[in-house]
């Protein structure tokens, strides 16, 4: 079959959800179709271990990997294509538009007058993930792998120079950052402020035991914990302050800091999609609305025919289960099966998204600490360290790549 006749299955996003979908599709897709993986960042990125890379010099190569056609599909690939450093800016029924000219890399696309490219599609998987701030997400200004490495090195250096660090947020990001920082710099003065009455609970009473264990461990490391309170800042961002500054919380607590870490959780990166068609984004959650088989759906009858080629998975989709890498990896093969069945038109039974069989959460405190909740049981430091803290699953990340 001529290359020009090959139809495109576009996967938007190369975080764990998108990479898992690509891995599954590559085993199932017929020769009539090729995968086009599109990622706005210049590299693939493992956010699970990003907090360690932000404080531990030399660890940053563990969370970053070259993203190219050969790294994903191997040197002998003649069909599939990876477009890194490429942002999708429009979604239409039979094509998408990206922000740069990729005609030399991808046959069959059409250059736009504004310098972008229109790519015809047969199917599209939106694995756009969540947006957040560095280091849990890469900064938009990074154009190369070296830029990303320098961003991590800069944060490592700034934190090494800081004396008092203020962490805003008592969820997993805030707790894990404090633990990683004190593993590397045990004498730093750290204050963590949270609106909640505990750590990582989000009002879930079942996680009370997890919270208690984390509070005990952070307190033992010298972290000052302030609950049911917040620091009024106009635009909280992560980074160093020019000098040691004093902040007053809403409840009157005084805090000094020369570095601030904004550790709120991520939000679905779907604002740009809502601007294209708000009917496929849940206004309450920001998640893309999908049916049980991962297909994008809209309550607006006039919009339904526009999205029949589209699917979604991961942190941006309202699929059941927690928004974590593990859940996306479980859903990806099911989505791939459904997508390929639709292409082949073979009437195969579609697979449905399902929730995790049991509630699971693990929050590490450095390499050796932490707490978790696994199927009705609260676990402590040893189990959390064994299953998460020691490795942060970086080997799983690098297994996605062939080079």
Automatic annotation (TrEMBL):
GO terms for molecular function: electron-transferring-flavoprotein dehydrogenase activity; flavin adenine dinucleotide binding. Keywords: FAD, Flavoprotein, Oxidoreductase. InterPro entries: FAD/NAD-bd_sf, FAD/NAD-binding_dom. The keyword Membrane does not apply. GO terms for cellular component: cytoplasm. It comes from the Eukaryota. SUPFAM superfamilies: FAD/NAD(P)-binding domain. Residues 8-319 form the FAD/NAD(P)-binding domain. Coiled coil: none annotated. The keyword Oxidoreductase applies. Belongs to the FAD-dependent oxidoreductase family. This is FAD/NAD(P)-binding domain-containing protein. It comes from Sporisorium graminicola.
């Amino acid at each position: 079959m001529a290359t020009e006749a090959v139809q495109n299955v576009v996967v938007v996003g190369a975080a764990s959800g998108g990479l898992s979908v690509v891995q599954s599709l590559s085993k199932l897709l017929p020769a009539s179709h090729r995968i086009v993986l599109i990622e706005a960042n210049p590299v693939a990125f493992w956010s699970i271990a990003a907090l360690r890379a932000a404080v531990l010099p030399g660890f940053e190569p563990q969370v970053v990997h070259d993203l190219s056609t050969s790294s994903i599909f191997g040197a002998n690939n003649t069909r599939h294509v990876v477009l890194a450093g490429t942002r999708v800016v429009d979604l239409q029924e039979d094509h998408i538009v990206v922000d740069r000219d990729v005609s030399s890399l991808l046959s069959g696309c059409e250059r736009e007058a504004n310098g972008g490219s229109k790519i015809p599609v047969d199917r599209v998987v939106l694995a756009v993930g969540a947006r957040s701030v560095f280091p849990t997400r890469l900064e938009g200004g990074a154009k190369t792998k070296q830029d990303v490495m320098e961003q991590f090195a800069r944060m490592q250096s700034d934190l090494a120079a800081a004396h008092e660090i203020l962490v805003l947020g008592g969820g997993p990001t805030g707790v894990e950052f404090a633990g990683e920082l004190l593993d590397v710099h045990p004498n730093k003065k750290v204050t963590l402020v949270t609106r909640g009455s505990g750590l990582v609970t989000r009002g879930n009473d079942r996680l009370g035991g997890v919270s208690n264990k984390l509070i005990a461990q952070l307190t033992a490391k010298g972290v000052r914990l302030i609950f049911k309170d917040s620091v009024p800042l106009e635009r909280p961002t992560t980074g160093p302050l020019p000098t040691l500054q004093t902040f007053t919380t809403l409840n009157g607590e005084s805090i000094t800091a020369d570095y601030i870490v904004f550790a709120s959780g991520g939000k679905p990166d779907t604002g740009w999609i809502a601007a294209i068609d708000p009917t496929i984004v849940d206004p309450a959650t920001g998640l893309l609305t999908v049916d049980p088989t991962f297909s994008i759906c809209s309550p607006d009858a006039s919009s339904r025919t526009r999205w029949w080629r589209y699917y979604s998975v991961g942190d941006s989709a309202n699929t059941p289960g927690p928004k974590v890498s593990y859940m996306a990896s479980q859903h990806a093969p099911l989505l791939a099966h459904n997508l390929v069945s639709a292409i082949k038109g073979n009437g195969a039974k579609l697979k449905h998204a399902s929730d995790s069989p049991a509630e699971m959460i693990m929050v590490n405190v450095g390499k050796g600490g932490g707490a978790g909740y696994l199927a009705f049981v609260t676990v402590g430091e040893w189990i959390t360290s064994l299953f998460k803290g020691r490795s942060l699953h970086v080997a799983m990340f690098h297994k996605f790549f062939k080079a």
